[in-house]
Amino acid sequence: MEFSQYNVNSLMYITPRPEIVFTEGSGMWLTDHTGKRYLDYLQGWAVNCLGHSPAVIHEALVSQSKKLLNPSPAFYNAPMVELATMLTQQSCFDRVFFTNSGAEANEGAIKLARKWGQLNKNGAFEIITFDHGFHGRTLATMSASGKPGWDTLFAPQVSGFPKADLNDIASVEKLISDKTVAVMLEPVQGEGGVIPASREFMQQLRALTQKHGILLIVDEVQTGMGRTGELFGYQLSGIEPDIMTLAKGIGGGVPLGALLCREAVACFVPGDQGGTYNGAPLMTAVGIAVLKELTKPGFLDEVKQKAAYLSAELIKLSEEFGLQGERGEGLLRALKLGDNIGAEIVEKARNLEPFGLLLNSPRPDLLRFMPALNVTREELDLMLNSLKGILRDIKGGSH
Ligand SMILES: *Cc1c(COP(=O)(O)O)cnc(C)c1O
Predict the structure, then answer these.
(1) Less Cβ around it within 10 Å: N or C end of the chain?
(2) Ligand 1 atom closest to Cα of residue 255
(3) Fold (CATH) for 3-54+297-395
(4) pLDDT band (50, 70, 90) for residue 9
(5) How much is the pLDDT for 369?
(6) 262 pocket-lining for ligand 1 (C-beta < 6 Å)
């Protein structure tokens, strides 16, 4: 089919999209409407932790869809209970509420913290968040995000989200008052440009929040589910937060998120929280299949090994082309380009022949890599070689 035959103007215009319609995916590869293949380092935005259409997800969807789609959130269902139990066994949390997206999980975290503040902190409701943080696109989560311009877009904001600077504990301490109920952050700022919170900062935050009797919330929508090489990003710094949110990787490509908390914080009462699709067995059955893969012996060790390899190879590229190095945790990494050539690289990579390469540039001078966690060495080399060719092209004949 020709691109012009698709009536794309029947969709709301929300972002510029290339004239490509994807029709199939398998592992690290996508195929478009013309049959051209692309090596995909976006993976649905760090969502497809096992790659495109893995057999385990296909099987979970088929077998669960034959049994039960949705008995309503007013009743228990078996996959919902099983996945919650698996998640509490694998983490420091005791209770789980399932959602359909990351923003919805964060919205729930904000509500839970405010409820806890009403019960325990005299109505304290402020949640300290961070400049360049990203927590989603609902009104409250946009207000919690520290994206430039979002404070006036769709004004008025939801109030109560003062902003501190990542990795600067004094900037957090300064904002704490008797109105403060929590601090919320991503262990690695993803959309902000793959900026890790340091181990030291996470430990300082835990100590500071404990000292003031306030909650620590980690938004692990991007860093959770093995992305950093640990099952959850907070484990990198050896701390235990009070609340965590998950999405993206937990569904391996289907809409699933989760809000987790410790028993002492689980203060919702009937009427406070809910949703028609929350915890539906079709999606939670997929979550079980995904988590079983991630927790197989050796899986996360391999993620760590591949991450170390990718990191080392990106450093080599950086040295060869005079770039600014790389950063990240696990298989969430970024190459610092030095110049604002991110968009040009993304475009050139997509247009490569015989196969395209899908990359992301969250900032003009940065490339972000979020491959499937089961990416192979060969698929890493294929990407690195393609990228090298593009850099040679852009940086001229001297390399
Ligand atoms: C993607 C993302 C979200 C939003 O998740 P959605 O499923 O798109 O609503 C929230 N927080 C972080 C850290 C994210 O990366």
Answers:
(1) N
(2) 7
(3) Aspartate Aminotransferase, domain 1 (3.90.1150)
(4) very high
(5) 98
(6) no
